[in-house]
Amino acid sequence: MTSNELKRAKRAVRRRVLSARDALAAAELAAAGEAVAEVIASMPEVRPGANVLSFWAFGSEVPTSPIHRRLWAGGATVALPRIVEGDLRVLVYQDGDPLSPTSFGAMEPALDAEPLDPAELDVIVTPGVAFDLEGRRVGYGGGFYDRLFPAAPRAFRVGIAHDVQVVEEPLPAGHFDLLVHAICTPSGLRRVATPT
Predict the structure, then answer these.
(1) Any idea what DSSP says for residue 115?
(2) Which of 1, 48, 63, 131 sits in a 20 to 30 Å window from 9, CA-based?
């Protein structure tokens, strides 16, 4: 598959899956956030003192605020990403810290928030548009997480999604597209790839 064919295939996946995700009712979105938070907090990789990179959900994504509350209650350190000059920075986030809006609707920590070395991450709660049963993901097209993953070699990568975002057919992927180790939906946790 050529680079252009790969881009076209991913765009088609995004259109189809985002349409299904955007059709979910508000009550279903809220329930998904609580269900996913419960599962994430019970993972053995999420222990007291763990460094967890999450993200600020926007639109019809699984809400992440319940995840953050569960992580803090369990004694984990929560970090959020901030995009700076095309790169993803990992910044510690505590309840009530100042946040600023992004151009696409998410929130990110202030630039002067405490940085966290990606190599110190234990878990990366990973966004995505679609995931398949082998851990491939189609994101939003920026490549930020595929560039982050190698800098966080010990991190367990768990994608969070609504059930409609998990597809049975293999997703289009290039050599630079890295797998998540598990997918968490309101239906539960599916471990799909072995951490290396």
Answers:
(1) B
(2) 63
For 34, the token pair is 């609580």
Q: In total, how many domains does the chain have?
A: 1
102-147: pLDDT as tens digits: 888 889 999 899 999 999 999 999 999 999 999 999 999 888 999 9
Tell which residue, 182, 147, 187, 137, has the closest CA to residue 46.
182
Domain that holds residue 84: 3-191
193 pLDDT above the threshold of 80: no
Q: Is residue 196 part of a domain?
A: no
Does the residue 39 lie in any domain?
yes
pTM listed for this prediction: 0.95
Residue in 156, 128, 161 with CA at minimum distance from that of residue 143: 128
What is residue 106's three-state secondary structure? coil
CATH of the domain at 93: 3.40.50.10420
Distances (CA, A) of 167 to 12, 13, 105, 136, 185: 13, 10, 25, 10, 12
